[in-house]
Write a structure and sequence with these properties.
This is Putative 3-methyladenine DNA glycosylase. One of its GO terms (molecular function) is DNA binding. The chain is α+β, with helices and mostly antiparallel strands. It is built from three helices and eight strands, in the order H-E-E-E-E-E-H-H-E-E-E. Strands 1, 2, 3, 4, 5, 6, 7 and 8 form an eight-stranded antiparallel β-sheet that branches. It binds a DNA duplex through strand 3, strand 4 and helix 3.
Length: 206
Amino acid sequence: MTPLLGAGELADDVVTAAVRLLGCTLESDTPDGTVAVRLVEVEAYRGADDPASHGFRGRTPRNAVMFGPAGHLYVYFVYGMHFCANVSCLVDGEPGAVLLRGGELVSDPGVARLRRPTARRDVDLARGPARMAALLGLRREHDGLDVTDPTSPVRLRAGSPVDPARVRSGPRVGVVAAHDVPWRFWVDGEPAVSAYRRAGASGRRK
DNA sequence: CTGCTGATCTGCT
DNA sequence: GCAGATCAGCAGA
C-alpha cells in the first residue's frame, strides 16, 4: 500500500501534474465496496489561457473547484447523462485540473461488476472518463472532496512510477478548441486507454 | 472494428 | 437556442 499523493506534487503546472498522476491509484469507498483504479490516461486543462478548459471563461458554481487548491475532485455532469472526474491542480486561485480518462482495475472485480454490470470486458470498466466516474461512484456530491486526505472516501495513492519511456502524449479527445495542444497523456500499450479519436479529424495517433 | 443514434444537463450567446 | 472534456446499443462490413 503506497502513501497518498501530496497536493504539492500537483501544484506547479498542469502538464507535470498530469504525468505525475499516471500510474497513481485512485480508490473510492462505494456503497458496493472499495474500488481502486490505476490511472493510465489523463488530460490536462489550464484555465487561465486554455480555451478548452471549463475555467477559461471565469469561475461559475460548477467549475469552482478548479479555482481552489490542488488535490480536490472536480466532478461535473456532461451530455445530460454522464459524470466526469478531474483532480484539481495549481495553487489556490489559479484554475487547473486533470481529467481522469482511463484506468486499470486493481481491486476486486466482483465489486466492480456490481457498479458497472453492462461492461463487456474488464478492461472496459474504467476505459473512458464517464465509465471511470461510474465505476468509482463519483457524482455531484463528491465535487470538492480532498483526495489527499486519508479520511476522505476517495483517495489518491502515489502508486508505482510509470517508466517515462512508456508515456505518450497527443491532442485531447473531443476538444474542439486548442486541439493542437498535446495535453492528453497515456501509458503506451495499456488496453484501458480509450480508443476515441480527436475532434474534427480521423486516423490514429501514436 | 466503424459509424450512427439517443439520452436531455450546463453555461454561454 | 445550442454545442459540448460521452457512452451504450445496434447495424453493417
